[in-house]
Amino acid sequence: MTAGTRYVIRSSSASVSGTGRSSFTLSFASAAPTIVVNDVTFKASDSGTRALVFAEVGSASDPEGNAVDVVCSPAIGTALSVGAHSITCTATDDDDLSTSDSGTVTIAADLSPPTADMSLSPSATTAGWNRSSVVVTLTASDARSSITSITYKAAGAQSIVTTTVGGHSATVSITVPGITNLTFRARDAAGNFSPWMTRAVRIDTTLPSNSSPRIILRNRMNGDGSVPFSIIWSASDAQSGLSKTTLQLSVELGSFAPLALPSATAVTASVTLHDGATYQFRTRSRDRAGNDSRVTSTQLWHTGQRFALDVMQNNDSSGAVTYAGDWSTSTGNLWFGGTTRAASSIGSSVSVEFTGTSVAWIAALGSNRGQVSISLDGNPVVTAANPLDLYRAVGSSRDVVFQRTGLTNTAHTLVITVVGSNSSSTGTRIEFDGLVVTRPS
User: Which helix (H) or strand (E) holds 55?
Assistant: First the structure.
């Protein structure tokens, strides 16, 4: 026999007398059963109670494999109300050996799901984009019970298989550029799940493209002699899209200053420039992730050619403008700079000497206007056989009627000659309002 072991002796006969012998059966009960009652929390049913089920709160077993009877107080099946309840359960085996354990069963009146949310580090722009990898922090909370887990998955630019993490928070790294849709939910201790939520994580690591600005002379000059130009450039971003473009102007080698644009991502602007000054424009763009366009790693701005603007009015006194034939002077706000010179006699001409890479002749169009031939540096560019016709049924003034660009930056001579009119015109009149010339500076 082993010390510490309980031995039970049972007689095989009803009585023992005299010297007769009786037989006994010895059975050995080596150990009592085991039982564990846990501290647990359950969600109440819609009625506000929950029945006590031992398998939900603990476990019991016998080392010898015998059947175990479990009795609890309160009794198994009791409808526990909302609150904390002390539970004591006793396990008894076939040898009448028993063991007891106690725990606390809490019935929570928690029928509401937890809430879940996410945050990004670094934070996204106001447009919802990042320009680098992102660490997403998922968090959850519940007003009545604790959070047991967070489950998440991702699809799109970056795929993540369904993953469950214990506790009230989890972190996820998103590193692939593009749009990754992260889906997540939380579970509380009462077994409630928050609804699945899907949030987009947007990453754009590519710089927007941008070009240097170009100047384009507009079709009609101003009466005060100033010159309107359109400034155009290109800007685009294939991933997140543009959020902003910027245009700046430097006058006479001064500091660059921003110019107002018609919209946040405009790639064209209208400006008014003046005779005798030098100008330079520069541009840049930014995408919705905060990436800025660059020429090189150290050069941010796309800068256009610096140029000088020369306006040669019809009353130029430098000797660069020479008239031949019958020319008269008119004044008024219809004309470029307030005056114009006009001729109607066939053969009348004006010769202008200029230096620059582009030239534009400014004149009026109308129902009594004639036709001209034009030569540039002695070479006919518009012939008398195929003249430039200034006739229009509806008149206008200060128009660009002839223009040449891409010239060499050297001295040039432009000659305009009256050659006649078409059959619809009531006259042969032409005007020389002036020339607009640009040249690199």
Answer: helix 54-57
With a CB cutoff of 8 Å and minimum separation 6, the contacts of 379 are none
Distances (CA, A) of 338 to 221, 226, 314: 11, 11, 10
> Pick from 65, 73, 55, 71: which is nearest to 95 by CA?
65
Note the pLDDT of residue 25.
52
Among candidates 350, 348, 330, 309, which has minimal Cα distance to 397?
A: 330
Confirm whether 7 is domain-assigned: no
- Going by C-alpha positions, the residue among 214, 244, 245 that lies closest to residue 230 is 214
Looking at residue 28, what is its pLDDT? 54
* Tally of structural domains, the chain: 4
Let me know whether 231 and 323 are in one domain.
no
Q: What CATH number should be reported for the domain holding residue 365?
A: 2.60.120.260
Pairing assessment for the beta strands 129-130 and 197-203 based on DSSP bridges: parallel
Domain enclosing residue 390, as ranges: 313-440
209: amino acid identity, one letter: S
99 and 140 in one domain? no
Tell me the residue type at 283: T
Cβ 34 vs Cβ 91: under 8 Å: yes
Q: Rounded to an integer, what distance in angstroms lies between the CA atom of residue 349 and that of residue 230?
A: 31
The reply to whether 122 and 101 lie within a common domain is no
Instruction: Give tens-digit pLDDT for 109-162.
Output: 766 899 999 999 999 999 999 999 999 999 999 987 789 999 999 999 999 999
Low-confidence ranges of the chain (pLDDT < 50): 1-19
Classify residue 124 by its DSSP letter.
P
Both tokens of 97, joined, read 């050996």
